[in-house]
Amino acid sequence: MSSLSVVEAKLEAESKAFQELQKNLTKAVESRQRLDSQQQENEQVRKEFELLGGDANIYKLIGPVLVKQEKSEAASNVKNRLDLISSEVKRVEAQLNELTEKSEKKKGDITQLQMQYQQLRSEQQ
């Protein structure tokens, strides 16, 4: 096997790995966007709870039925949900940073292999 075909095979493998990284990066970005949306919705609910009086009726949709819920319990549920979303945002952010770093490194590796491949091709001609 010539050194040209070895470099070509490495280049192909690195390109496939880069495509996989890009796919995972896209999934992580979509996940981050979903979390942002959920966080905004829950923040809005939390703000609405602050505006309600102590005697306000709060209902939670459980399946097809609205069930009355205590304001303190509902506010606590929203706070817990916001805490959970915040921790998940941190996890996804770390994942995004890691995938971005790996992607940039892989891009550099591919560029290096492309230059090596071009050099080998010009030497053979």
UniProtKB/TrEMBL annotation:
Residues 4-48, 75-123 form a coiled coil. GO terms for molecular function: protein-folding chaperone binding; unfolded protein binding. The keyword Transmembrane helix does not apply. It holds the Pfam family Prefoldin_2. Keywords: Chaperone, Coiled coil. The keyword Coiled coil applies. One of its GO terms (cellular component) is prefoldin complex. One of its GO terms (biological process) is protein folding. It comes from the Eukaryota. Belongs to the prefoldin subunit beta family. This is Prefoldin.
